[in-house]
Amino acid sequence: MAKAKTDIILRDRLQFTADGGGDLSLVYGRIDLSDYVNVVKRQGLLVKDIYIQLRDPNASGGTLSLANTGIWLPIGNSIPNAPDTDDGDAWKVFVSTRAYENAADVGIASPDVLHIEEWWVHTLAGQAPSQYDVNVQHNIYPMRDYHPGGYPVVSDLLVGIAVDSSSSNSAWDDVTLEVDIMLIAETTSVTEKHMTQLLTQAQDL
């Protein structure tokens, strides 16, 4: 959270809708930083930390009704219909200054990527009725770990979202979810040389 008097808190909310099979090819939302970035004045924004929350405000998925809280349950009701059947769902959300064509190309070693979060659900149906093995993982690769001094930007930020689903009974088919983003940042001056480098990196925008 904000720790310095000069820290700025920026918030945004994005929506995305999976297709009838629960999948979603990579799509982007954009965080407008034009109020804080000025190329002529060599003014940028030093992003210090990023927080992401997935939300299901309409309680549209899963067997539980969560209309009062809007909590997103990644497992939903993604239970295989046949014995000894594997099902799974995976979500990736990342923040970057570069527009990648495929979320599969995005990792912590990818250039200009500030933050990555992944959710993964694997369900295996057993032989006995109502016998299931369920695994849920949530991996966070925060910028505070690999950009501990902050990351200067001179352009808008992109929020990439992609979903893979092999579930035969997914709760997220044709469902619209929300992604809440909060940034902790402060304004910063950028040298002419560094400004040129940052603008070159952001040319894919």
Helix-strand layout with pairing:
Blueprint: E1 8-17, E2 24-31, E3 43-55, E4 86-96, E5 113-125, E6 132-141, H1 143-146, E7 151-153, E8 157-165, E9 176-189, H2 192-201
Antiparallel strand pairs: 1-9, 2-8, 3-7, 3-9, 4-5, 4-8, 5-6
Helicity, in percent? under 10%
SSE topology string: EEEEEEHEEEH
Biggest pleated-sheet summary: 5 strands, antiparallel
Radius of gyration: 19 Å
The helix-and-strand class reads: mainly beta
Low-pLDDT parts are none
Tally of individual helices? 2
Describe the model.
There is one protein chain. This protein is mainly beta and 205 residues long. Helix content is 7%, strand content 44%. It is built from two helices and nine strands, in the order ββββββαβββα. The protein has a five-stranded antiparallel sheet.
Provide tags for this entry.
mainly beta; 2 helices; five-stranded antiparallel β-sheet; 205 residues; four-stranded antiparallel β-sheet; 44% strand; elongated
In short:
With 205 residues, the chain is mainly beta. The protein contains two helices and nine strands, in the order E-E-E-E-E-E-H-E-E-E-H. It has one domain.
